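Tokens help. Our protein:
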Amino acid sequence: MLIFKKLRHILSGQFIRNFGWMGGAELANRVFRLGTTVVLARLLTPQDYGLVAIVLTTNEFSNVFTLRSGIGSKIIQADEKELSVISNTAYWLNWILCGSLFTIQCLAAFPIALFYHNTQLILPICVTAIVYLMLPFFLVQGALIQRENRLNIFALCNVTQSLIGNILTIALAIMGLGMWAIVLPIVLSTPVWVVICRRSHTWRAPKSISFAHWQKIARFGTNILGVELLTKLRSNIDYLIIGHFLGVDALGIYYFAFNAGLGISMNVLGAFTSALYPHLCEVRGDLKQLKQRFFSSLKTTMAVMFPLILAQSSLAPIYVPIIFGQKWVSAIPILTIICLSALSYPLYSSTNSLLTAVNKTHVTLRFSLIYTMIFALAILVAVKWGILWVAASVLTCQLLLPPAYSISAIRYVFAKHSSFSLAEEKP
């Protein structure tokens, strides 16, 4: 009876409820996306996948400055007495960032097309930049919703956008639009977030422009932005190097393997991360509670993620030819290796959420800089022998470096006689 009571208590916790919403949304997304992936795998060519990889990689780098800039994270973490001022300033900062990114990405489309010797890249890169002009309409509301632990709203946004986006993708792919079948739905499905977030929160944009406390936001966000940029660089540098040295067709095979292999795992992990950060921020000033919440959540995350990753990796030879078709059989060894590289992600992402919650993002930034340099060097060396060796170098780096850093960082935060205040901001 005691065991059942304890289990019921664990499952009724805020972290589990939030993960339940986000995890359910991601499960629905994967169901929608599975059908889309099967259709695309049979209708698109490696050339199409290669072009999409370049367009989406460009877009992902720009996205870091908006969704991952640290502005939203500061709203989630801010003290109640300064929340209104922080939110108002964040709104105007978002407009400056998003307007600048729209212009920069459109201008960058031309040298990117020149780098890859393909002018077909210019227009889709410019089209995906339109998304940035929509983001300021809901980013502050989204951060406030996350701060209030109402992740069921985020789950609704994810599911609705995914459903609309996947339906559009399948329809456009059947119509023979090639890479545009993936590019256009990104823009057309984004208004879902604007509508749902604005209907779900009463906060509205200030009538007058104000930048009060912008230094505090910038100080907090700088390290987060640096970490996210380096993370995005690591996530995409193999695409950039393969596309440049081995060609778009090789990139298409590698890109397919990476997304088919890590898609489910990373979506589930994203659900855990979204639930974990506000869960830790609630008790960031209490070392004992913070430690209890962190390790409890980490155990739950690993218990779910490890079996999922191992199953996805070991079953690849069975499900790839059945689901995606025989033309992708050559990608199975790469897919298997890439799946296994995700084993270190749960510990690494949880550690980063912990450090962000206690204002120690400079620790993450320093490691991320070193890690990115080693990772890039390994990819540059491995690409000489082909994409299989690139995948092997990714696996080696992921299994060795992040766990060592995570263990050290966790000890730093939870040292028995901690010398810093968890609530104190680093100047």
The mean pLDDT is 79.
